[in-house]
Amino acid sequence: DWRHRGRAHIICYVTLKWSLCFLIGALAGAVGFFNNLAVENIAGFKFVVTSNLMLAKKYAWAFGVFAGSNFVLAMFASVLTAYIAPAAAGSGIPEVKAYLNGIDAPDLFSLRTLVVKVVGCIAAVSSSLHAGKAGPMVHAGACIASTLGQGGSGKYHLSCKWPRYFRNDRDRRELVTCGAGAGIAAALRAPVGGVLFALESVSSWWNSALLWKAFFTTAVVGVVLRALIDICNGGKCGLFGKGELIMFDVTSDTIAYHLADLPPVILLGVIGGLLGSFYNFLLEKVLRIYNLIHEKGIGYELLLAATVSILTSCCLFGLPWLASCRPCPGGLSEVCPSIGSGFGIFKKFQCPPHHYNDLASLLFNTNDGTIRNLFSAGTDAVFQKSSMLLFFAASYFLGIVSYGLVAPAGLFVPLILTGAAYGRLVGMLVGKHSTLDHGLFAVLGSASVLGGSMRMTLSVCVIILELTNNLLLLPLVMLVLLISKTVADTFNANIYDMMVKLKGLPYLDAHAEPYMRQLTVSDVLTGPLQIFNGVEKVGNIVHVLKTTGHHGFPVVDGPPFSSSPVLFGLILRAHLLVLLKKKEFLHACTLSGVDASKQFSADDFAKRGSGRCDSIEDIELTGEEMETCIDLHPFTNTSPHTVVETMSLAKALILFREVGLRHLLVVPKSSSSPPVVGMLTRHDFMPEHILGLYPLLLKSRWKRSESPLLLK
Amino acid sequence: DWRHRGRAHIICYVTLKWSLCFLIGALAGAVGFFNNLAVENIAGFKFVVTSNLMLAKKYAWAFGVFAGSNFVLAMFASVLTAYIAPAAAGSGIPEVKAYLNGIDAPDLFSLRTLVVKVVGCIAAVSSSLHAGKAGPMVHAGACIASTLGQGGSGKYHLSCKWPRYFRNDRDRRELVTCGAGAGIAAALRAPVGGVLFALESVSSWWNSALLWKAFFTTAVVGVVLRALIDICNGGKCGLFGKGELIMFDVTSDTIAYHLADLPPVILLGVIGGLLGSFYNFLLEKVLRIYNLIHEKGIGYELLLAATVSILTSCCLFGLPWLASCRPCPGGLSEVCPSIGSGFGIFKKFQCPPHHYNDLASLLFNTNDGTIRNLFSAGTDAVFQKSSMLLFFAASYFLGIVSYGLVAPAGLFVPLILTGAAYGRLVGMLVGKHSTLDHGLFAVLGSASVLGGSMRMTLSVCVIILELTNNLLLLPLVMLVLLISKTVADTFNANIYDMMVKLKGLPYLDAHAEPYMRQLTVSDVLTGPLQIFNGVEKVGNIVHVLKTTGHHGFPVVDGPPFSSSPVLFGLILRAHLLVLLKKKEFLHACTLSGVDASKQFSADDFAKRGSGRCDSIEDIELTGEEMETCIDLHPFTNTSPHTVVETMSLAKALILFREVGLRHLLVVPKSSSSPPVVGMLTRHDFMPEHILGLYPLLLKSRWKRSESPLLLK
Fold it and tell me: What share of chain B is helix, strand, coil (3-state, %, to 5)?
């Protein structure tokens, strides 16, 4: 146990941890900024070239350049992900969430994943795929945190020695939480929202010290972003302009609302909840189909990505032709029609001079530009109903088909886009019955769809406020979020839980299912329990490790050493493997009396980074060695958590989850039994396992998926 | 166990719970609004009368009216609190925090406490005592939640039947958490800040369902406040004006900052941290002295309150005479000098026409008005350095001496005031070296002193943002908070922990002290363990209950019923008392076979509101009855949490705290011992208890108070 140290070590540990948080924040901020800069410049260049061709009326050429560059970028992202780091596909938020719940996945946070995630995300977003950058940034932030916590990647000889303090589950989990928060903070420039996001929807354990560290990390992100933007203000960032990221200013002067505006807002929330839960439903179906395709091999994966890329290009380039050209309104501060890329709201597209195409302003633009256009106040007359409806439909549809591709892609931005279009549409339909600005409707629409799909409340609320920089919106945003989440909760679970389940990860919920109250822990124990003696034969250990897949074994001292069996503790497979590798065996099977701390240092037992587990097959032992013994006492955890066999399964689950355990020993209620009667692991708490043992429970089960609201 | 129910019951439970949250939010919002309305009108009327007398140059009369009304109001608050509900004194936040940690206190949340808290707080704040309304509102919110959860107060025959679902610790704790959040939200009009405050500094347990409920509650508060303000906009609220509460508008246009502004901001944070921790240090000393005075009786308490009230009146009325009159600047939209009450920044006080007294603008004003004046942008030239220094000193000093009085009083507003004055002072001293507005300096100063004293980060940050309605401040506020908290943490603990300790409440920290790692749970077990048999003699039970003060007893089945002793579960004192009261005894000491659920309903065992415990002395039993038996099996909790005796004390503490236990059974490691060897309660984990048993540990103890930062 590495905590048996002096004061100097503790100071060193704390200093290092805070420095790590600082580094995580600084790196995440820099990566987020670089990400935006790259996307705006690559996509911007593409739009400039295409627009210039359009201006010269070379429409076929324009489409060719547009679709071609999109195709190349999308395929680049897909090939990179598929061949180099498959773990980098998708948004990564479900994986991070599962990791923080205690599920280790190989290669999830490697340096390779990080690089592919960042580069792939830039390419995917630049390729006009309907994909966001927030999810990948969360994963990237977690990768940065984990890699720094490891002291670099061992594989590429970049590792250094100092972070030996952080090679344990708890510290790594805390760093990853900070990293995830920093990711959202960097992607959306929402430091407080980032902390709340990490708290509300990613993390499974939380304490105030961690809150404080996460807050520090995101504050660093905020400062770094601000400093980098100061550089961009000098005009050195190319097409990125002044580097405003997505910071929408619905100016506060224009916003005033009264009780009379409540009915449309409530309606907005209800329909938004329906749209959000239907989005989840459709996405799950599409992901199931995509999973079938992906199982057929990388070729099919790439083919799928290519198809979606071409489809997207066709949609984005083709749909604006359906919208009619509108004359530019007079008395504008902006150029109309704007030529080239940028955030201009009046796109010329195919229109004659002094006319603009409102659908092109939305479709033929970067995501950030579109969101800015939709959220702008005082633009009620700019868009037509038909255009907005078309954009909404396209956005809803493209968001669903684009997510499951092999490239890194997030869900946040597509949902914001879809919601904003939906909100504006509602605003247009309500028309004169409400005094609210359509830009405000767009903001509320985004909130409602996000709430309906992701079911986050506090964090989405704060993120929306930080994006729009307007606190007067607060009551309306809260109202919309509450309504849409409540409506959506009656239909299905939130999108991340749905994906975690789809990936088959053994995610442990924070609450017990009702039928678990009817069972005791001894009801779900399966299989024979493997127990080691305090001094155990090497041959025995090797045999057990080879024949079982368990990760922990109780150690019980038997008759030679004590009169009756005594529970000594729990030993981990990983530690046994270290012992077997070192080959410091005893020839007589007695207590060794050797000071183990001289033979081994704490580093030997430190947990390695993900994906680098030893295996029992790698250790070769001679027949003679098999007959020797190991004294397990010094290496056993003498403080295992225990429950009595009559403990209710529901209470055991709460204990397991709240304390964050991996193994839970079951002790007998009676003193005539052996001192340990079983062991519970994560898998024993999975509904699938329990219902497999007791199929009859299924009948009396109140299905959670039907009404998740009930158990909250 | 009331959860063994059908689906209809669960739906009913959930609906009721959400309705309760709604009611809590609505009531807390209404109370908060009423509170503000009353304070502004009472204090405003006082200032109008006094100002009119000043205008007529009747200075002695003015002082008489001012000091007299202050005295009457302060004494009213003190007498009310001292005689009717002593639990309502102070801010109440430490008590709420201790309650949520698991410490029941009698009468803490009664209806009487609520009424006294609200009325007393209005009187205390109106009396110009340097006291805030945020802390009392937190306590009031918690009272509302608890009282509603009880279905009203039983004492005044207001109770109703439906809330039987909520008569258990867990639900009551959740409701109180929501209530505390609603209190802050109502007091400061900061819904998100309220949730975060409840999360960060009040609550000990948290989960996402609770987050979601707390968010709903504070959203209701926001909507209710907004609706009530709409009424005030019609001008029907008397001197309350437009009912803006404290919503400061530092207009965003005036704020621009660059890297060059960082040094003064960092300096501000460092000194703010020092000031904050010194504030805590002084406050603790003063509270110790006050405690000595309070012990002497109510008369001394009231005398102390009277002294402080007169002292405050003298300060507020006397100090402005030291400031020189300044001519009104030209070209103002405001009236100068303003006459009467209100938020005018130019107070006439004793000055000749067209002159104003800047110190009077700060001292001779309501707290909200002063904060507004200090936070206003574009008022750099209004105040003089000497006035600001005087105001800062007075505010720092008065805040410390006013808190420990018997009246309800909070700390938030005094700290904001002190910090704002300190920030402006720094702004004036920095002068031309910074381009930042002095109003902004005031906001940052408030943040730094709050961070230094309360050590909250996220919630203070969000509260400040919600108060100022300006998100552009975010990076600066975060920076200042981080610095000031870090600086202050090196000196002492946060103000609420300090008060909890001072009150001697057994608060359980979320982390273990280092020396606890060296002990096992069996090291701290004390005293003989009282065990009951499954079927126990009434006489035995009565004897044990009379001779011990324990609240829980293990139940072990002995030889007549099983071959070897078997741990059956844990029974609570409260449940034993219910059994003894019902007198359904068995004449033969065998298993009863009677269906206990027919004799008793779950309501019999439901936990009563605070302060209404039965006592063993109230139950009278005949000698014959003493010889009969009770079958304890149906009433025993068969799922007690357990630890093995070799478990590390530190790990047991984490388990105890994370799962939120009251009793933890210690089971033996060996199978030859009795099935339970001891029981741990909250008191066994208190450092005082452990260090009492092992005084030598004190030497090797790394004192937490010296460096709390280290263990975070």
Answer: 60, 5, 30
Using alpha carbons only, give the angle B347, B351, B357 rounded to the nearest 5 degrees. 40
Distance from CA of A521 to the nearest CA of B (A): 10
Interface confidence (ipTM) of the complex: 0.79
For residue B534, list chain A residues with Cβ-Cβ distance below 8 A. Answer: none
Taking the C-alpha atoms of residue B653 and residue B667, their distance in angstroms, rounded to an integer, is: 16
Reported as a single tens digit per residue, the pLDDT across B518-543 is: 788 888 887 778 888 888 888 888 88
> Under an 8 A CB cutoff, do A191 and B709 touch?
no
Note whether B569 contacts A510, CB cutoff 8 Å. Answer: no
Are B197 and B456 in contact, with CB atoms under 8 Å apart? yes
Q: How many residue pairs bridge chain A and chain B with CB atoms within 8 Å of each other?
A: 235
CATH code for the domain defined by B7-240: 1.10.3080.10
Owner of token pair 């009040």: B202
**Which part of chain B is CATH 3.10.580.10?**
514-711
Contacts of B413 (CB under 8 A, 6+ apart): B131, B132, B133, B134, B367, B371
pLDDT tens for A480-513 read 998 999 899 888 888 888 888 888 888 888 777 7
| Probe site for chain B from A644, A647, A648, A653 (most B CB atoms < 10 A) | A644
Model confidence at B3, pLDDT cuts 50, 70, 90, reads: very low
Judged by average pLDDT, the poorest of A58-62, A439-443, B5-9, B59-63 is B5-9
Which of B252, B479, B712 comes nearest A219 by C-beta?
A: B479
* B252-300+312-322+367-502 CATH: 1.10.3080.10
Q: Mutate which of A205, A230, A444, A471 to disrupt the B interface (most B C-beta within 10 Å)?
A: A471
Q: What is the CATH number of domain A514-711?
A: 3.10.580.10
The CATH 1.10.3080.10 portion of chain A extends over: 7-240, 252-502
Nearest by Cα to B43 from B314, B367, B326: B367
Contact check, Cβ <8 Å, A191/B474: yes
pLDDT at A209: 80
Among chain B residues, the shortest Cα distance to A228 is held by: B259
| Summary mean pLDDT of chain A | 81
Alpha helices in B319-366 (DSSP H): 358-363
As a CATH number, domain A252-502 is: 1.10.3080.10
Cβ atoms within 10 Å of A440's Cβ, excluding its own: 28
Residue ranges, comma separated, of all CATH 1.10.3080.10 domains in chain B are: 7-240, 252-300+312-322+367-502
Q: Is the pLDDT of residue A571 over 50?
A: yes
pLDDT in tens, B623-638: 888 888 888 888 888 8
Which residue in chain A has the smallest CA separation from B471? Answer: A469
Residue burial A62-84, b: 16+ Cβ < 10 Å; e: rest: bbebbbebbbebbbbbbbbbbee
Q: Number of helices and strands (H, E) in chain A?
A: 27, 10
Q: How confident is the model at residue B689 (pLDDT cuts 50, 70, 90)?
A: confident
With cut-offs at 50, 70 and 90, classify the pLDDT of residue A64.
very high
Chain B residues closer than 8 Å to A668 by CB = 671
Closest partner CB to A669 (pick from B209, B475, B567): B567
Chain A residues whose beta carbon lies within 8 Å of the beta carbon of residue B668: 671, 675
CA–CA separation, B35 vs B125, rounded Å? 10
Out of A151-155, A612-616, B87-91, pick the least confident.
A151-155
**Cα separation, A456 vs B212, whole angstroms:** 9
- Indicate which of B641, B656, B664 best probes the interface with A, i.e. most A CBs within 10 Å of its own CB: B641
Q: How far apart are the first and last CA of chain B?
A: 38
